[in-house]
Every structure is written in structure tokens, then in C-alpha cells.
Amino acid sequence: MLSRMLTVTFDAHDPARLARFWAGVLGREVVEESSGALLPGDDTQLGLRFVPGRAEQVGPSRRMHLHLTSASPADQQHTVATVLGLGGGHLDVGQRPEEGHVVLADPEGNEFCVIESGNSFLAGCGLLGELACDGTREVGLFWGEALGWPLVWDQDQETAIQSPHGGTKVAWGGPPVAPKEVPNPQRFDLAPAGGDQQAEVDRLVSLGATRLEVGEDAAVILADPDGNEFRVTAN
Questions:
Q1: What CA–CA distance (Å, rounded) separates 2 from 4?
Q2: What is the pLDDT of residue 60?
Q3: Can you give the pLDDT at residue 68?
Q4: pLDDT at 207
Q5: Got the DSSP string for 141-191?
Q6: Which residues of the chain have pLDDT under 50?
Q7: Which of 25, 61, 216, 226 is deepest in the core (most CB within 10 A)?
Q8: ∠216-217-218 over CA atoms, to 5°?
Q9: Other CB atoms closer than 10 Å to residue 89's CB: what's the count?
Q10: Edge-to-edge strands of the sheet including 210-214?
């Protein structure tokens, strides 16, 4: 099965500013789009897209956060300093002082962590080491099939997948999952392998997705088995 190109889209009050922030953190270039801004990914690192939307939603509506890796304690400190210098901040989510990771927020409150060096699970994954999601085992298995990415973790209802080329892992923490009441301000954009949007939509529905609507940009909006919206782009 062909692997699909995955991008994570963030609703933002100021998409251009948020894209510049993450470009500075990740060392990437910003590509302007008609609907926002894109930090392109590749075979091993997820792309990030920023569009105008419901960025004010907090708490259970945010089902995803990023994990950045560190090569050494000094490298972790450097990443944290970079984040703070670009307008990010520390975030208290109840972490204990002895925990090695640092919890931060970008300028619009999206939580992410800078993981301490020596983390074996994220070894070799690159700077954007993981996208950590709330979700069931069922949705992890669905996305493995949807993307053509192998399962690299499946234990105690927790799952993780990774591109066949390596790089960023996408993980789901298992139940309990907070009830979904509003559209997610963070979601997946999926580029169809081979460019056939309708065939890709039909395939995803056969795997357990639910078709919702067609967006203004001709992207088809679906929901995964946990009810999370995602888009199959037109090109």
C-alpha cells in the first residue's frame, strides 16, 4: 500500500504569525496559501498548516499536541529558549518537578512538549518526534490502514504508527477519551496517493470513516471512528 502524505492543520486567530513561530522553532520555510500558511513536511516529518478558525477553543476540544525531541540537555534548553524568544510560554498542566520534559504553549495556546534527551521511543524520529493524540485503539488502527503506516506500538489500548520511511510518530493514548462536543481546532489533512480524491474517499469510508461534507476549497470532510473531522484534499 502507498503511504499517504499527512499534514496537521491548526485553526488560528493569526495564521501567518503562528506559522512564523513554528517555522522558527522547527527551522522550516513558510509557504503562503490562499487560506493560510503551510510548513511543508516530507516523507519523515509531518507538515503543519495554519488557517483562520476557532482557535479560542481550549481543553477537551484540543485532542492533539506535538512532542519535540532533544539531542542533549543543552539542546533541550536551547529549544525552550528559542520557543520563549519567539513568543511561546511555559504551561502548567500538573506536571511534576521530577519529570524531564518541558511543557510549553505556542502564542495561541497550543500545548506542546520538549522531550528530554535519551527518550528511546522517539530515538531517530527527528526534531518533530511525535504527534500525541487523544483517541481509542480503534482509531489508531484506522489511521494505520488509512495512511499505509505500520503499527509501531500496540499495548494497553495505546497505539502508535510511523511512516515506512521513519520520522514523526503519531500516537493515541487510549481511553478514556473526552466526549466530543464541537469540531476540533486541530485536524488531519490527507493528500490522496495518486491524486484521485474520490477513490481515496471511497477507500477511507470502507475502512470506517464517515463522510460529512465538501468544503469550500473542494476538500472532502470526513470523520474517523472517534468522530474527529479530517479532510481529503483535492490535489
A1: 6
A2: 41
A3: 98
A4: 97
A5: HHHHHHHT--EEEEETTEEEEE-TT---EEEE--S--PPP-S--SEEEEEE
A6: 1-2, 57-61
A7: 25
A8: 90
A9: 11
A10: 31-33, 36-39, 47-52, 5-12, 186-191, 229-232, 220-223, 210-214
Query: What single-letter amino acid sits at 32?
Result: E
* Amino acid letter, residue 144: G
Q: Give me the pLDDT at residue 181, please.
A: 82
- d(CA 143, CA 138) in angstroms, rounded, equals 9
C-alpha span between 139 and 226 (Å, rounded): 6
Alpha carbon 51 to chain centroid, angstroms: 14
Q: In this predicted structure, what is the pLDDT of residue 169?
A: 98
CA-to-CA distance for 112 and 219, rounded, in angstroms? Answer: 28
Protein fold of 5-232: 2,3-Dihydroxybiphenyl 1,2-Dioxygenase; domain 1 (3.10.180)
Is pTM, for the whole model, over 0.85? yes
From the number of C-beta atoms within 10 Å of its C-beta (0-12, 13-18, 19+), residue 196 rates as exposed
* DSSP-H helix ranges across 149-224: 197-207
Separation in Å, CA 17 to CA 36, 60, 66, 114, 117: 10, 24, 18, 21, 29
Residue-level pLDDT at 76: 97
What residue spans define the domains of the chain? 5-232
Q: Residue 200 has what DSSP assignment?
A: H
* The residue to which cell 492533539 is assigned: 64
Q: How many residues does the chain have?
A: 235
Kindly state the cell numbers that stand for 29: 520555510
Distance between CA 98 and CA 135 in Å, rounded? 27
Q: How many CA atoms lie within 13 A of 204 on its CB side?
A: 29
Residue 197, pLDDT score: 92
* pLDDT, the chain, mean: 92
Structure letter (DSSP) for residue 96:
-
Residue with cell 530515538: 123
